[in-house]
Amino acid sequence: MTVLKQAGGTSENNCEVRNGMVVRYEKGQPAGTFRFMDYGLLFFNKEALMKYKVENFSTDRIFADLISAGQLAAFETSQPYYEVGSKEGLRRFTRYIESVGGRK
Questions:
Q1: What is the Cα–Cα distance from 35 to 99, expressed in whole angstroms?
Q2: What is the DSSP secondary structure assignment for residue 39, as one 8-state letter?
Q3: What is the pLDDT of residues 64-103, one digit of tens each?
Q4: What's the farthest any 2 CA atoms get from each other in the chain?
Q5: Spatial contact of 104 and 32, defined as CB atoms under 8 Å apart
Q6: Residues contacting 83, CB < 8 A, separation 6+
Q7: Comparing 39 with 64, which gets the higher pLDDT?
Q8: What is the chain's alpha carbon radius of gyration, rounded to the nearest angstrom?
Q9: What is the pTM of this model?
């Protein structure tokens, strides 16, 4: 799981990392509960997913199982997080890409 450490423990933070491993993950906690945010970029070994049937369920279930097994590694990034699920978020991201030399 790629994670971003955010000063001040914002309400977006949803996980705790120790020694390079995610040790707790929970959305919707009050600001100050966690120091890290799930960045949204995930990589899984195929074997880690094989026990799950194809069905609609949250990745939270996979995270909980991997945390319990001590197998959810954290990759900490310092790059800013850009939400692109809204028009305004996409505009901010586009401006950022343009400012670092992306195509217009």
A1: 28
A2: -
A3: 999 999 999 999 998 877 888 899 989 988 998 899 876 5
A4: 45
A5: no
A6: 89, 92, 93
A7: 64
A8: 16
A9: 0.79
* CB neighbour burial string for 11-31, b if at least 16 within 10 angstroms, e if fewer: eebbbbbeeeebebbeeeeee
Residue 52, Cβ neighbours under 10 Å: how many?
A: 12
Cα-to-chain-centroid distance, residue 46: 19
97: left (phi over 0), alpha (psi -120 to 50) or beta: alpha
Query: Are the C-beta atoms of residues 24 and 67 closer than 8 Å to each other?
Result: yes
In 3-state terms, what secondary structure has residue 93?
helix
Q: What are the C-alpha distances in Å from 28 to residues 33, 34, 37, 38? A: 10, 11, 11, 12
CATH number for the domain running over 2-99: 3.90.550.10
